[in-house]
């Protein structure tokens, strides 16, 4: 059972989580204005040296800049996570993003493309065309990652992008995505050491991903971005491996 942890922005944290058994180390470029970051390049180098895979999210979609980012960092995986159900990227209007992914494949064939597919929380799945979106993007994607799209009036934590809500998506819909998809699916969305085992058995994904629920928290219980709780990461990996073994034996 593949494990992926975001947001790892330093070589020291990358080394620490890989030492705990993490397979994919995820890093984020927060703004288009400051996309060349020496520490992130050093993080990518450490990930390669230690034999894990790097995944990089640019929180922008300008094709020319995305190509520059890939050429500069050469990640193993480019992870794209636009808010596909906004007016700009509705299910029938994703052509620009599909063309971007096709362009990435043509220019950087060694880089795998991971596309976040939005899934609503339990009880609200009818508000998000999850399976239709997946069908649109599958021909130009190598991996899917489920993530929770807030649809009950809450704002996404990063405008225009899906993710880091700390809320679980609807697992039955995630399982339907796994069944439909011809490419691997990584389960994400509010996963923690406490629920990852159940999530794997309910969904049957290729791997699992955690960000918010493996972060350090403040005294008030709020997750701290870009700072991992290594004990939580270790338990997350252990629980994922145990569930993966059960799944393999079924």
Helices and strands in order:
Blueprint: E1 2-5, H1 11-19, E2 24-29, H2 38-49, E3 53-58, H3 63-73, E4 77-80, H4 95-107, E5 112-119, H5 130-137, E6 143-148, H6 171-180, E7 185-187, H7 196-203, E8 207-210, E9 215-217, E10 223-228, H8 230-249
Helix pairs in contact: 1-2, 7-8
Describe the overall structure.
Helices cover 36% and strands 20% of the residues. With 250 residues, it is an alpha/beta fold. The chain has a single domain, classed as Aldolase class I (TIM Barrel). α1 runs parallel beside α2 (38-49). The longest helix is centred in the C-terminal third of the chain and has 20 residues, at 230-249. It is globular, with a radius of gyration of 17 Å. The two termini are 14 Å apart. The model has no long low-confidence stretch (mean pLDDT 92).
